[in-house]
Amino acid sequence: MNKRFLIPALAWSLLALSFAGCTDDNMSGSDPLPEGTEFDFGTTVESNRTRTYYDPADVANPDATSWKIFWNYESSLYDHIYIYSPQALASANQASYTVQATKDMVEPAPVAKDGDVGVQTNGVSNYDFYAMYPAKAVKSGSGKDTSLSATMPDRQTASTTEVMTDEAVGEFQTTADMDCALMIAKKTGYNPATEKTVNLEFEPFASMVDITVNGTTGSNTQSKVRITSVIIEANAPIAGSFMYDYKNDKFVFDADASNSITVDTKFADASGDKVGVMMGDGSLLKVRAFMIPNPDVTSLKVKVVTAESKTMTKNLNMNSFKPKQIHFVKLPKINVKDLKFDYTIWLSQLDPNIYLSEISLPGSALSFNYLMSDTYKKTQTMELKDQFNAGVRVFQCHVNTIDQTSSIDGGSTSVGIADSDGNSVLKSDNSGSWTLGDVLMALHKEMSGTHKDEFCVLAISDWISGITTAQLSTLYSRLKVVLDKAGEMGLIPTGINPNTTIGDVKGKVIIKVQLNGEYTDAWNQLSKANVWMNTYEQAAETAPYYSPMPYGAQPDKNAGGISAWALDGSGMNLIYSDCANPIRTGIILYSYNWRDGVQANATAVLTAYAQNYESTEHRNFSMTYLGGCGGGNNRSSYTTSTVASTLNALWLNIDKPTLKPWGWVMFNCVGTEATTTQGIQAVIEHNADPEFKLARRSAAKAKPSGDTKGIANGGTVF
What we know:
By secondary structure, the chain is of the alpha+beta class. The strands form 10 sheets. A 7-stranded antiparallel beta sheet has the order 3-8-7-6-9-13-15, with no helix packed on it. Strands 11, 17, 20, 23, 25, 26 and 28 form a 7-stranded mixed beta sheet that branches.
């Protein structure tokens, strides 16, 4: 970072604000303008000094000491600015305006207010003005004292008209997202009695990093990689919401402030599918990112991410770094064999148009059992957040009724998290028991930051010993209330069908309920719930089970079976194995052995899925269960780690289908068992297998029914 360019503040005097609507009589003498007079703003600019895209001649000139920035002059692309005056009329002291620029401006360009009311006078003699570009970055009505509040996106868009292929690119320059090129202007002490115009000189506010990703080294056995994103990480906030004090040059950051910025480098191929940029020996990929000019930033690094979620990270030299300047970074060549696997961001590297049924997802068996006191029940040791960062995207828990206020439905009794005996799971801080609402909020929190372009699955069941139909009806009734409220809050999707893709559900938790097949009379309590529903039968513990899995509707009470004939030909299905306790008590005291069929089932379900997968239908899912508790007490040598290492080894060593997805794979001992780590990586990497192109929904295909749009921090691909 030893080379930096300043975009000079005086390179363009962008705005001259005038009271064009006032007569000369209004301007005479020292009388202030009448209260409520609306400012009629206009713009003047120096020749060739306009906005929102860099002058190509400057960019191409290696000796340039600054880059001019130009206003957009096409009417469909007009720029918008936000202006605030603390002395203006309280009810009309801030507003957004459109800059109606022309290509070759000689006369002042008009600036039109975007709403019904613009900034108005307040009958005082002096005014201060604070302005920011773009207007949409500013929080409406946020002007206070000498400050404005705004947001710098932590997801920034690179764009190109190039079509991606399997061939490595040469020199590939992307176009920066200029909506992130925040600029500011201020004018203090303006007196309309002595000055005719208000000159607001905009100057660069955002810091910009111009990154060149170098090609691969020629000596690698794998000479090409696809780059799906470039991430900038700092030791202090560089994106998110903030308040800026123009007078004191101070920042206050909101809770959503981010220490990282991601630039997506997935672009359309000939089919319209989004893929990363193919890089080889001699390739150059150029991207630009804008950052909040936070003076507390003393450390920066750039991370290049491949389609396999492997990364190369470069720490930057901060000796010459100054806020509000352009900094050029040229990364070293990518040594493919030295790339590091990153479990935390893998799902965000996939095309959002990929169907849900195509994705292979690693999961954790009995995800909350890290809270158990009995060692043999402790299938996990890592907390939810750590499991998420270890790559897990499918979580599992049992539920029960609980006399405790839920953070979702607000009732005095709700749905709790239970162990395999139906007992409530206490929080580690002794503040009460875990509710399903707590789980949904915890998972949503994980997807409101770094993972907000992702989704996850929560598989729940009752599995409570000795439960009655009445008790299960109560549980399902409460569960319906929680699901309805979660749907209203945007925590879960409210409609999924075979056409649903990643982008439709990003930022949300998909819930699957395993209905207890012994108590079908209780199922009606979940009518029209926002949830996948499938049937549990004991046969699934020793053989692959074929179970219809409709969303928002109950399966038939006799649906499901150990034959593929049980699959629903029009809706969605789950082919699964499920055995929470694969170790059984032996005849001799304290002796244990494997339950019949468990080990064979751990691999048989994947074969069953492969035989019934059809990429054109994208309706069938699979869940392979490689977890479960160990022996019946803490003296057993059949520990949860033994379960993991045995079943994982079986699964890792079988021939898995290269050209078909592997479904959801549930593991014991996330983060502590070596074979589990290997398994999670294998599942994740399968999504980027170059021989397997995951099926995607094109624009011509039907969109899913129901409200499946992502929440505010997610969005939709429509």
